[in-house]
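Form 12-C: Joint structure prediction
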Amino acid sequence: MMDHRSIEEKYERYHVDGEAYIRQAQTAPCFICQIVARNPEYPAHIVYEDDKAIAFLDKYPFLYGWTLVAPREHREQVTGDFTVEEYLDLQRVLYRVAEAVRREVGAERTYLLSFGSNQGHSHVHWHVAPLPPGVPYREQQQAVFKKGTLRVPEEDKRCLAIRLHDRIEQQHGT
Ligand SMILES: [Zn+2]
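Section 2 - Result
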């Protein structure tokens, strides 16, 4: 578990090239479908997978442990493209992943958000965003998006993904 200060000391932050990111989002194939298909051009640190859902570390984390949960099938409307049962099945996975992330990184608060756009990154995905302890009030909530992306080394991400996977597998009763 790391608090806000130790995360900021351990990892530097950078700003993603906005125009390149937008171009990629609007022209490249769906990154979630590519991860599901194990396209080697879209490597990901997968923490959970079943026949309906997949979860993997966000490539551009604003907070340490930021994880995405998505249906394996390409669906675009966060509620409208699901039956209520399908939606709740995905929420069950979201719960399990969020609890694993919360416990692993010692989050003080967990943000769950569904973003995306019909014009780019349209595949439904939920963000599990764990706020570490010690973040000043003014730097919480929307402010976490303004600080830049944490540069977490690949080896660090690989180990974190394994620990999260183990925690999810060890959960019972969910
Ligand atoms: Zn897709």
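Section 3 - Comments
The helical segments are 4-10, 18-27, 31-36, 84-105, 154-170. The pocket of zinc ion is lined by residues 30, 32-33, 74, 123 (CB under 6 Å).
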